[in-house]
Amino acid sequence: MRGLVEQSGIGVATRNTVRALKEQGVDVTNNPTDSYDLLHLQWIGPLSLYHARRARRQGRPVALTVHTTPDLLAGAFTLSGKLTPVYTRYLRWFMRNVDLLITPTEAAAAQILPLVDGKPIHAFSGGIDCVRFAFAEQSRIEFRRKHNLHRPTVLAVGQVIPRKGVETFFEVARRIPEADFLWIGPSVSPFLFYSPRFSRVLRSRPANVRLLGFEPDIERAYCGSDIFFHPSHAESLGLVILEAASVGLPLVVRRLPVYQGWLHEGKNCLMGDSTDQFVSAISALIHSQSPLLSKNGLLKRHSLDVAGRDLIAAYEEVL
Q1: Of 45, 87, 281, 292, which sits 20 to 30 A from 31 (CA to CA)?
Q2: Going from the N-terminus, what domains does the chain have, and what CATH number goes with each?
């Protein structure tokens, strides 16, 4: 489970948070036995609960970033429909041991508001490393050579689970045979997610789709691709969207409430609700050779500098 979390968006957000704080001159440790002023948790497993209770007994405030709201469980785990009520109760119980709550977006904050018992909630992302995620021509050349890419390339990044829109990705790829479709991200253990139907979907994927698994140097994949397609059915933020935008890829995403306020259709992205709409958007980008859509300040508000200052201001409320 730990490896899966580290490879997920939660792991990326955690590393960005540490970097953002260090850039603000804050000393950070990942050893809970060290001396510290505030404990910031990014995961709600049993070990996190133990450390939260221990910190509060010692008079240290606890902050928690809630990455997974109850609605995000659907299509992520075996029997997720039955687990959602249990997870909701557990999350409510866990948050009794927390002094400060952080969510990536206002939409995520609204979802957990009924569970927090009046505790302060702040909504901001963990930031994006715009230095790492910058376009590099050499990275593009090397990635495309490694994977023998000679056609327009559409990229998706995320765990290989139904909630991320894998089936939609396959359907769109089947309709655009003149392009290559790459999915980068780890597959979930069958002990955590098992679905005979989804297994059949994976086996019957179209020939122009490649599942490349986890990629530690993900910025090379962004540089080597032409379009970023994120068909996920639910997100707390969608950090990979920011990574792709930082490299300069045009964005095609599902029309979700969580994107309101920072993704603007026709300005910094194209949106869709159906396979037909996604096919139309991606085909237009492939065949029009139009310039990249404007980022419109998309990255400025999610920079590590802004994230670090937001975190410190939130911490000061409970310190």
Answers
A1: 87
A2: 2-127+303-318 (3.40.50.2000), 137-301 (3.40.50.2000)
Q: pLDDT (tens digit, 9 = 90+) per residue, 199-219?
A: 898 999 999 999 999 998 999
Residues ≥6 apart with Cβ < 8 Å to 94: 44, 48, 49, 52, 64
Q: What angle do CA 163, 164, 170 make, to 5 degrees?
A: 110
**How is residue 236 annotated by DSSP?**
S
Residue 183 CB: number of other CB atoms within 10 A?
A: 23
300 burial type by CB count under 10 A (0-12 exposed, 13-18 middle, 19+ buried) = exposed
Q: Are the CB atoms for 62 and 55 separated by under 8 Å? A: yes
Q: Which residues of 105-193 form beta strands (DSSP E)?
A: 121-123, 153-157, 180-184
User: 284-294: buried (b, 16+ CB within 10 Å) or exposed (e) per residue?
Assistant: ebbeeeeeebe
